[in-house]
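Quick illustration, no need to memorize.
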Amino acid sequence: MHRFTIDLSDVDRGVYESLDLRVAQHPSESERRMITRVIAYCLQHEEGIEFGRGLSTSEDPALCVKNLRGEMTLWVDVGTPQPERLHRAMKSVGRVAVYTSEDPSTWLRDVERATVHKKESLEIWSLPDELVETIEAHLSRTTKMSVTVSDGRVYVEVAGYAVDAAPVRRSPAPLAG
C-alpha cells in the first residue's frame, strides 16, 4: 500500500484539489504502472473518480468515474489493453481513456486493425519517460508531490526534484494503403 499526498492544480481544466490517495500495488504490478495510474488519476480528476478493484479483477478498469446514480461515465485503462476490452468499454461507457508509459506503437496498430466501437473517440495518452522515472526514483510508501497542469504540460515536484513534460495524445495508426 502506498500513500500519495498530492497538491493538484490543473489550470487547463480549473481543477484545484488536495488529494490523499491510498494506492494498493498488486504483487504483479510494477511501480511504473502504479505511478502511471496515479498520474492518470490526477489528469482525469473529477467528481466521482475512483480506482478500480485492481489487476485481480480483470473486468474493472484501472480507474473510473461514476455519476451520482452509480453509472460509469469514464473508463480509464493503463498500459496496452486488448482491443476487445476497449470495444466493450466504448460500447458500455462511451468515454474511454488509456494511459501508457511504454512505447505504444505496435499496440496502436493492433487497435487500428481491430473492431473497436467509436475508435476515433478513444483518448490515448503516452506519458514521457522522464515524468514517470522522476517519480519512480523518489517513490516511498508515503510520497508527497505537487502536480500542476498548464498549457498541456505536466509539472511535478517530488522530494525536492522537479520535472515537466507534455503527455502526447495518440491515436490508432492508420493502416497503410
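The chain has four helices and eleven strands.
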